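Researcher: I've been going back and forth with a colleague about how Trafficking protein particle complex subunit 2-like protein might be arranged in three dimensions. Neither of us has a model we trust, so I'd like an independent prediction. The organism is Psylliodes chrysocephalus, in case that matters for your notes. Sequence below.
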Amino acid sequence: MAVCAAIIGKDNSPKFFVTINPDEELQFQYRVLSSLDIVEDKLNSGVKGGADTKELYLGMLLSLEAHKIYGYVTNTKIKFIIVVDSTNMVLRDNEIRSMFRKIHSEYADIVSNPFYIPGEPISSKNFTTNIKNIMTGTV
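Model: Here is an independent structure prediction for Trafficking protein particle complex subunit 2-like protein. You can compare it with whatever you and your colleague have in mind.
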């Protein structure tokens, strides 16, 4: 189960941020924003293989004592970050990829909405509920 999910714009500005426990939001914001340096390093160092730009999943970015942070980047440089509890050994790499694909799909739906202003933070309650359901695995 994921404990935090974030969507970061191509200019590294936060567009969406949600946590399961709102009391820990500031702590997770710090961890997510600090992992952006690793995302940039992976994108710039050619870890994606240079020729293989189809792979959007970046894998584990950071492993801390209590959490693991995973990253995903779209072709338009929108970054998705998921923080997973380290004690959760049930989640495998393919399940993390599946979570990212579902979040990407939800993101595509929300930015396709004619009332969404491009570049603005996402503040939809329905979107937040859908992302929380993906994080907890109730989808």
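Researcher: What would you highlight for our discussion?
Model: I'd start with this: Residues 45 and 111 are 29 Å apart (CA to CA). After that, consider the following. Residues 25-45 form the longest helix (21 residues).
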